Backbone:
């Protein structure tokens, strides 16, 4: 069957009903984190739709992108409920958990197998440090598009968070707020590599990892949005004013500018 706006609305209703199951627990910290991922999912849907439109995708593919955006983090709610953390290394891989939930709930079964596979694989790969080689052109395209849309919204979440004063360990991934930047993280960036999460040893490293996402962006409209919204500048502003930070920022910002003028 083909996707339609009506179909998407049905899945959006399913999504809201599913979240209602997590609203029984009234603990404010729990609710805050469930809400945070709910809003993130809804915004990623909007971001991916806008990217898909900018890329002139046909209508069917725009709808498909929206579905992937809305459901990409469906594993997050169960992850937080079961483990009280969003840290995959301390709980389980939230993308894999998301696929498990999609299967348990029998979602997307009405679609053609190719479409089902595309949705499931894009979700499965969205949180990998790097995408594995993907033969299928469509799956590769949507996996890359989802990763861009997801990063655009995480840039928003973290920069909004840095701009306020209330602390949330679930965002900071429980990293200590100590001085400086780790040598391994600095080296990754100077070689235009994304930062590996196992190299993170403090909160500054985590912020730097986000700046280095620029090396893992796939599409021109995503680079344009990152520049318009000044995400790199906003993260730099909450890092120590050091020579290392200046070098990191210059490297990443130059990379971004090059992508946009090309
Ligand atoms: Fe996400």
Residues:
């Amino acid at each position: 069957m083909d996707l339609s706006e009506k179909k998407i609305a049905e899945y959006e209703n399913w999504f809201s009903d599913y979240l209602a199951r997590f609203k029984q627990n009234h603990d404010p910290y729990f609710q805050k984190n469930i809400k945070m991922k709910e809003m993130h999912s809804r915004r990623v849907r909007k971001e991916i739709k806008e990217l898909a439109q900018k890329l002139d995708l046909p209508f069917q593919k725009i709808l498909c992108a929206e579905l992937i955006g809305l459901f990409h983090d469906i594993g997050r709610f169960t992850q937080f409920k079961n483990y009280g953390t969003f840290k995959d290394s301390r709980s389980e891989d939230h993308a894999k958990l998301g696929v498990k939930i999609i299967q348990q709930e029998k979602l997307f079964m009405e679609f053609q197998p190719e479409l089902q596979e595309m949705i499931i694989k894009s979700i499965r790969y969205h949180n990998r440090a790097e995408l594995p080689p993907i033969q299928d052109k469509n799956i590769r395209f949507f996996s890359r598009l989802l990763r861009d849309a997801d990063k655009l919204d995480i840039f928003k979440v973290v920069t909004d968070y840095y701009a306020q004063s209330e602390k949330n360990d679930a965002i900071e991934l429980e990293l200590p707020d100590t001085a400086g930047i780790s040598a391994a993280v600095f080296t990754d960036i100077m070689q235009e590599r994304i930062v590996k999460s196992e190299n993170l040893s403090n909160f500054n490293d985590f912020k730097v990892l986000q700046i280095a996402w620029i090396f893992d962006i796939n599409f021109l409209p995503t680079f344009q949005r990152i520049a318009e919204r000044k995400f790199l500048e906003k993260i730099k502003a909450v890092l120590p004013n050091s020579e290392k930070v200046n070098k990191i920022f210059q490297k990443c910002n130059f990379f971004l500018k090059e992508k946009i003028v090309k």
